[in-house]
Design goal:
CATH architecture: 3-Layer(bab) Sandwich
Number of helices: 2
CATH superfamily: minor pseudopilin epsh domain
Strand order of the largest sheet: 3-2-1-5
Order of helices and strands: HHEEEEEEEE
CATH class: Alpha Beta
Distance between the termini: 73 Å
Structural class: alpha+beta
Number of domains: 1
Largest sheet: 4 strands, antiparallel
CATH topology: minor pseudopilin epsh fold
Strand content: 15-25%
Number of strands: 8
């Protein structure tokens, strides 16, 4: 018994065979898991960006209602003038003179980050105006897709004339979200 305790205390490493078996198992697991990790990361990044935009739009709508004025959401590269590139940062401001431009006296209420370089956002409009009633001046459809153009990762955001914001869903469980009409989103 004393001999067994002495032998157990002296053994401190692993054999070459044990190490090779461990490395082989790790390599097999990595080849099976790595592609899934990439798709999870892509999906999470797109979901985070669409949720951020949804929050920005909801903030603008509630601000328009609370302050009984017109709130504008638009992309802007300089945080002062609106552009038509929805991949740029977005700004929310009160448009006191209804000219769709943030003038010096108009407060900048909120900003968002640039869309990730691995994604692309498109929109049916350049400016989203929320009226004092909470309604939107025009209905807007926005789409966010990865640069790979894989539709299974595409997401859309819809702003109704009532000002309600809704994120697309995969209602038929085919792996691709649908647009307002119920058609699969296309990222081409």
């Amino acid at each position: 018994m004393i001999n067994n305790l002495v032998n157990k205390k002296r053994q401190r490493g692993v054999t070459l065979v044990e190490m090779l078996i461990t490395l082989a198992i790790a390599a097999i697991l990595l080849t099976l898991v790595a592609p899934n990790v990439q798709s999870i990361l892509t999906k999470n990044k797109i979901t985070a960006e669409i949720n951020e935009l949804s929050g920005l739009l909801q903030f603008a709508r509630y601000t328009a209602i609370d302050e009984q004025t017109t709130a504008v959401v638009c992309p802007s590269t300089d945080f002062a003038t609106c552009s038509n590139d929805w991949n740029a940062p977005k700004i929310v401001f009160i448009d006191d003179n209804d000219n769709n431009t943030r003038d010096g006296a108009e407060r900048l209420l909120l900003t968002s980050q640039t869309i990730s370089s691995t994604n692309k956002m498109t929109s049916s409009g350049n400016i989203i105006r929320f009226l004092d009633s909470g309604g939107a001046e025009t209905a807007i459809n926005m789409k966010l897709c990865p640069n790979s153009k894989d539709a299974k990762f595409g997401r859309a955001l819809f702003v109704s004339l009532q000002g309600r914001t809704r994120i697309s869903a995969d209602s038929n469980n085919d792996g691709v979200h649908e647009d307002v009409a119920g058609n699969n989103l296309s990222c081409t």
